[in-house]
Amino acid sequence: MKSTIMVAEAVWKSIESTHSVTDDQLEILNFLFGKNFERATRIVDQRGVKKLSGDPSGRSIFQVVGESRKREEYLCFAEHYCGCYSFFYDVVSRGEQLCCKHQLAARLAASLGSCVEIKLPDEELAILLSNL
Questions:
Q1: Which position among 5, 65, 69, 118 has the lowest Cβ density within 10 Å, counted as fewest Cβ atoms?
Q2: Which string of DSSP letters, residue by residue, matches 31-100?
């Protein structure tokens, strides 16, 4: 598990440095994360990742659109948390996944610089975070 995280981090840093992704990098991430990564790429392709940044603090959280018919939006920290059911079930409870598709979509969009950027007052961001 630890080596998987180290490989993934190296790939993410490489993508971040160029704001582009190669076929080889996509293959590695797909191998590491499987169907969740495939789903995450669809979310990114559909511009389903928003980065909500507080002003003036600059603190941020991602809001990621789900793929269900309801098109629910989930708040997540790309590396640590998502408010979706899959995060709690597959990542936290069963430990079968390293992260959910929403976290992967947030990480990919941020690495590529393709997030929809939204600035809001720190007070509004605090209210969003208090509802987690």
A1: 69
A2: HHHTHHHHHHHHHHHTT-EEEEEEETT--EEEEEE-SSTT--EEEEETTTEE-SHHIIIIIIIS---SS-
Judge whether 65 and 48 are in contact, CB under 8 Å.
yes
**For residues 26 and 9, what is the distance between their CA atoms, to the nearest angstrom?**
13
The answer to whether the beta carbons of residues 66 and 49 sit under 8 Å apart is no
∠ Cα 124 130 132 (to 5°): 115
* 14 exposure class (CB count in 10 Å sphere: 0-12, 13-18, 19+): middle
pLDDT digits (tens, 9 = 90+) for 19-73: 999 999 999 999 999 999 999 999 999 999 999 999 999 999 999 998 776 778 9
Tens-place pLDDT, residues 70-93: 778 999 998 899 999 899 988 888
In single-letter form, the type of residue at position 106 comes to A
Return the closest-CA partner of residue 106 out of 71, 132, 69, 80.
80
**Identity at 105, one-letter amino acid code:** A
DSSP state of 20: -
Spacing of C-alpha 4 from chain mean position = 17
